[in-house]
Amino acid sequence: MTRTAALLGASLLALCTPAFAQTPAPISVPPLEFTHRELANGLDVYAMPDATAGTVTVTLWYNVGGKDDPQGRSGFAHLFEHILSRKTVNLPYGQISTLVENAGGSRNASTGQDFTNYYETVPPQYLETMLWTHAERMARPVVDQAVFDAERSIVKEELRQRVFAPPYGRFGRFVIGDNSFDESIYRRSVIGSIEELDSAQIEDARAFHEAYYRPATATMIVSGNFDPVQLDRWVDQYFADIPNPDRPVPALERPVETPRTAPRQVEAYAPNVPLPAVGVIYPGVAANHSDGAALDVLQAIMSRGESSRLYQALVYRTQLASNASFGVNAMEEDGVISVTAIVAQGKAIADVEAALDAELTRVRDEPVTAAELAEARTEIVASELRQRETASGRAFILGQAIVSENNPRAADERLAAIQAVTAADVQRVARMYLNDQARVSVRYQDESARPAGAPEESWRNPAPVPTFLTVPPAILAANELLPEDQRTAPPEPGEPRAMATPRAVERTLSNGLRVIVARSTELPIMNVQLVMAGGAAGDPADRPGLASMTVGLATQGAGDRSAPEIARTLEALGADIGGGAGADSTTLFLSAPVASAEAAGAVFADVVQRPIFAEEEVARSRTQAVNALRVNLRQPGPLAALVLNRLAFGAAPYGAPASGTPDSVAAMTRDQIAGFHDRWWRPDNAALIITGGMEPEEAFAFAERTLGGWERPSEPAPEAADRAGGAAPGPRIVVVDLPGAGQAAVTAAVRGPRRSDAAYYPLSVVNSVIGGGQNGHLFQEVRARRGLSYGAYSNLAARVDGGLLSASTQTKNESAAEVVDLVLAEFDRLRTEAVTDQAVTDRETFITGGFSRALETTGGLGGVLADAVTYGLPLGEIESYPQRIAATTPESLMAAARGVGSDEAYVVVVGQADLFIDALRAAHPAVVVIPAAALDLNSPTLGL
Q: Which of 281, 289, 871, 883 could form a disulfide with 285 if both were Cys (CB 3.0 to 4.6 A apart)?
């Protein structure tokens, strides 16, 4: 049976902007459109064809997740997600990723409490191939000891990277996670623990697949450019004959939770916590609960955007916290509400808790205003509109609705319900769910604050953990990889579907502003990017971060609007504004529904031309930036990248941290910020890029109305000179000792060409061979073959005067020295090892496929055009880039690779040095060690 859903019986879901907005207009969200059929074996298939898409996305969602982890095996569903992606009877280890990347596509998988999903986005001609790979994984996976051991090691590194390395990883995953539920199937963390991962056996994996992976527990969603009739034939061909096991899916009798009737306090401590954190946890609701829409609106009022209550009360007005959030996590069977804040430097934990409590009390005791209600609804609808821009985005919205609410119409029904939420509804759910008798309060501090005698895991929930199922042993014979001459080959790709590249057109306004327009979607959304030359390269040597601080402050008061007024105005229109400073340019962006363009554009014009830079805003932004930097500088990966940049570029502008340092930011003055704006922000030094649903003439008229009056100064525009400098003197290998680091970050780099140089294109292919995606040498050697990291990649940075080809990864501290040598070996490998024609073609296809996917969103297309402006490339680069990449040959690749070698490399390792320094020094006697506390990023020599 096939049925078509045009949800809510309407072609569009519309929400009117609030009456007080400058331009009341409807924001329309196209409903999800799909067909559904169920095969005889229970497989649900949803088709979402879109003839305008340049790709097709295949997602397979299984009704198994963290809540189904066996007894004593927390993290097992996630571990099995890794295992199932690797090998089948017809596909050797890693071949699925090879197929996808060689097609120019991307793939991944994820595990939640309620689901595990696997997904690929590829050019349309590879749809049949992807369907076949999913059938292989469902019916014919190989779970052998080599796969099991490798993936368990990788998952342990993922846990270290996501949980142990970041300062607040334990806070979110373990402390908040363990105390969110008591006797609940959601009690355990999806990522599990090192101890229980180590206790797992290969027999557990085979039993798990046999118990939970079958057609009747799966939902397939295909979205994008395809023929629905042909899809049905292929699905029948590859899936209809897959049987369900004779045994039923294991079913755990759900534990009955004891309601919380008294508040509880949790004290937690961890290494490398630069600023304390506090949290409040309340029981929530399941995803399909009738109060879900009102809770979504409550969440938006409390913490969505800079006009939200928590931001205004804790971050903006009192500056007690560096950030604050209110989260509603609704899953299939239960939910949780968590409110958190990071305490600002020099502020008291008790004061942050009191301020947080005051806001929770206020939302319970007083109705929210009509303006807050309207703004929250508009923000939610506008966000949903952006998520539906691509075929893959729509597929994930549909999939989440199915696994969380067992209702494919849930996403659209939720939008309709949100529009009906009243102020009384918000107050009612606040009173009902923000119940202090059911509350858990959390404090999270650095290990140095731990009182004597406090247990190591003081954060543990005292409620007993439920007893979970033990999955029955597998009874089917284990699969093995077939001999090569007996394997079934993947289906060949079909005929390519011609797709048009968006056409960019441009004009120059009378004030010298370059305006570039490319219509990229039928959706009523727009993306505006103002790109100004200079960026961080224009920072004074003693004030790194000035360009970044200037663009951040521009939105904090402009024209006759204060910072809160700007936030309220734009958020009520469903618009977002922001920006940043890269090495060579500063970008200010505006994203808005087309219906809000005029009103949002008026604010944008003020931000560009008339920022106030009020002294109190400068002081506030300085404090916020310093707090953020303190957190960032305690993370191995980000810190390693900053040190590497200084090593490679030294005193040149490119060597300084674009975001600044705590010292440089703290010393910035209003006059310096205003002076930077006056010098660099000018129409003849800028380009305005408009992408989205506007017709070109409409977009040019918007540009004229918005920035046509921007006055051009009489003096010549400034230029940044000698951005890269010569080769920086100093050590080549540096270790930054960060005691207590949960992992070591390993980075290495060599200098590269200008983005506008012809040499950039073959070096891009070299970079892809070394570390592009899952088929890059680094990923294969560090992760796939040795299980030493969750991922290892390389990147060729684009810069006006030459960037870096850099490699980066994170590993347990004990293996850092081994990984350094693996990375350096890959820098040398292409100097002597020939690359075949087919391998070069495959890597070219991987690069150009990623480039094509970037053009599918308004923001991505705008970013590509912004890069062309920044690096002095013709707009035709969006068409010529794939051709120039494809022109690389094995010979030109080898020639480009001669400039990449370990003898030219700079290396940085950030981690707990006593766990690896002896091994590293034995291989590299010239290594220099500096304590993290002694590191000076303001200095070209780093204080060495």
A: 289
Work out the angle between the directed axes of helices 546-554 and 615-632 (0-180°, nearest 10): 120
Name 45's bridge partners: 37, 220
Assign 1 a pLDDT band (cuts: 50, 70, 90).
very low
C-alpha distances in Å from residue 193, one per residue of 74, 551, 812: 7, 42, 15
Q: Where are the beta strands (DSSP E) in 668-821?
A: 686-692, 733-737, 744-751, 792-796, 804-811
Yes or no: say if 604 and 712 are a contact pair by the CB < 8 Å rule.
no
Beta bridge partners of 912: none
Task: Give DSSP secondary structure letters for 383-425.
Answer: HHHHHTSSHHHHHHHHHHHHHHHS-TTHHHHHHHHHHH--HHH
Contact 861, 869 (CB under 8 A): no
Residue 142: which residues within 8 A CB-CB, separation 6 or more? 87, 88, 89, 478, 479, 480, 481
| Closest C-alpha among 605, 600, 756, 606 to residue 692 | 600
Long-range pairs for 878-886 at CB < 8 Å and ≥24 separation? 878/501, 878/502, 878/504, 879/501, 881/848, 881/851, 882/848, 882/851, 882/852, 884/761, 885/761, 885/764, 885/765, 885/844, 885/847, 885/848, 885/851, 886/844, 886/848
What would the mean pLDDT of 525-538 be, rounded to a whole number? 97
Tell me what pLDDT residue 19 has: 37
Beta strands in 159-312 (DSSP E): 218-224, 264-270, 277-283
Predicted confidence at residue 18, as pLDDT, reads: 40
d(C-alpha 368, C-alpha 632), whole Å = 35
3-class DSSP assignment, residue 690? strand
At residue 582, what is the residue type? G
Task: Tell me which H or E stretch contains 675.
Answer: helix 670-680
Q: What percent of the chain has pLDDT over 70?
A: 97
CB neighbour list of residue 477: distance below 8 Å, 6 or more residues apart: none
Max distance between CA atoms of the chain, in angstroms, equals: 82
Q: pLDDT per residue over 812-865, tens digit each?
A: 999 999 999 999 999 999 999 999 999 999 999 999 999 999 999 999 999 999
* DSSP per residue, 21-66: SSS--EEEEPPPEEEEEE-TTS-EEEEEE-TT-S-EEEEEEES--G
Query: Which residue is associated with the tokens 């749809």?
Result: 127
Distance CA 850, CA 873 (A): 19
Helices (runs of H) and strands (runs of E) counted in the chain: 32, 28
The pLDDT of 729-744, averaged and rounded, is: 93
Q: CA-to-CA distance for 797 and 292, rounded, in angstroms?
A: 43
499: confidence class by pLDDT, cuts 50, 70, 90 = confident
> Mean pLDDT across the stretch 41-63?
97
Is beta strand 440-446 parallel, antiparallel or unpaired with respect to 264-270? Answer: parallel
Other beta carbons less than 10 A from residue 841's beta carbon: 16
Report the alpha-carbon distance of residue 377 to residue 16 in Å, rounded.
10
Q: How far is CA 670 from CA 554, 558, 585, 612, 622, in A?
A: 12, 14, 21, 10, 11
Closest CA to 377 of 421, 433, 312, 409: 421
Smallest CA-to-CA distance from 603 within 632, 576, 582, 579 is with 576
Contact, 11 vs 29, CB < 8 A? Answer: no
List, in sequence order, every residue forming a beta bridge with 269; answer none if it has no partner.
Answer: 445
Q: In a 3-state reduction of DSSP, which class is residue 343?
A: strand
Closest CA to 740 of 190, 341, 274: 274
Query: Rounded CA gap, 164 and 162, in Å?
Result: 6
Side chain identity at residue 622, one-letter code = R
Average pLDDT for 202-207: 95
**Of all helices (H) and strands (E), which one includes residue 351?**
helix 349-365
The whole model's pTM is what?
Answer: 0.94
Judge contact between 47 and 34, C-beta under 8 A. yes
Strand pairing category for 277-283 and 505-508: unpaired
pLDDT score for 468: 96
